């Protein structure tokens, strides 16, 4: 009983400290201390075994995915340094016009993240351009932030097949599938997320205009607008700008296409069975194409590459810390009881997958953290129950992208901090497009999969 209470206290402490702006690593260490003490666990096992080196340990995860984080951050940094990311954003803005600002934000963020640019680079890219768009179209800041979240943190993260996102790679690595597993289900979910999310945002925009709720400038907006204006005239053309993204996607798609065409080679098998290494290689080739195409990148490549390496560390450490928290949690009797309860529910197997992956991601406030814990603790039971690895890959990914965006999510806090928003002002819209809509899309896929089985 005390252990279960301690488990809840540790979780509540993690959520509370995250909402108060604590560093997530410090919050995790305090939370696992509470869990360890109340569950009678030896502290040396908590801090020196389960948290760092267990099956879901922080260092275990960091060691397995360091290369992917590093290559992703490097690609994002050289895309920003070359101004190719800004070039893609401005090209789409010029084609669609500022009155389609919400659609532009979603499309640009989706294109960049699907191509492997890390989320934080995308957010920083869209903010300077967004100031002009918000002003010209009179869009409330909260809705523009929600459009960024919809494009960068939903369907390209968990639904669309082929993306080198950490979530897609985790599932492929743990299940022995490839990045295209459950592809048609992912496409269906992606269309639903994009369509429903944009419908909601456009509806809220019309309602806001009718209520006199529009764009309100801040001092930081003026700085961002000046940055966008200063770089706008020197941006590369859209063809050159989008080429590195195309390089990444083509390299990821190529082995699958060749296999479907009946061709076989050692490197094709390697690409399909080593998702971490192949996705990292694709991102590295994307960075190399930036080096070849953009002189500013060549002039300062060593410094830019170093900054990319630095960029990789904080997301890797934060994600690993959350997963290490889960690594301690899964050692408690309370979690084993919770897992047994989930598996024992009288529910269709795919509904149980949806529920369990969602709840674990909600506990950790991280889709990647929740997915890793799900794969190491519950996935074997679902495979034994007859769920195919490909279907489990996609549905678990979709489910993990639901409750991961609760108020204590690090990505939510970072977005609000950058755009000068509070949870009270903006979380409702974020909740709809990053929690409610993805959950509805995942349930739709579950229903279709059950109907076809």
Q: Would you give an account of this structure?
A:
This protein is mainly α and 453 residues long. The protein has one domain (2-452). Helix content is 80%, strand content 0%. The chain has helices at 2-19, 24-38, 43-53, 58-81, 84-96, 101-114, 119-137, 141-153, 155-158, 166-175, 183-210, 219-232, 238-260, 266-273, 275-293, 295-299, 301-329, 333-344, 349-364, 367-377, 379-384, 389-400, 410-419, 423-452. The chain is globular, with a radius of gyration of 22 Å. The model has no long low-confidence stretch (mean pLDDT 86).
Question: Termini separation (Å)?
Answer: 41 Å
* Strand/helix succession: HHHHHHHHHHHHHHHHHHHHHHHH
* Main sheet attributes: strand count, strand direction, barrel closure: none
Please give the share of residues in helix.
over 70%
Q: How many domain regions? A: 1
Low-confidence stretches: none
Figure out the total of helices. 24
Question: Mean pLDDT, nearest integer?
Answer: 86
Bulk shape: globular
- Helix and strand content put the structural class at mainly alpha
DSSP strand content: under 5%
- Strand count: 0
Over the alpha carbons, how many angstroms does the gyration radius reach? Answer: 22 Å
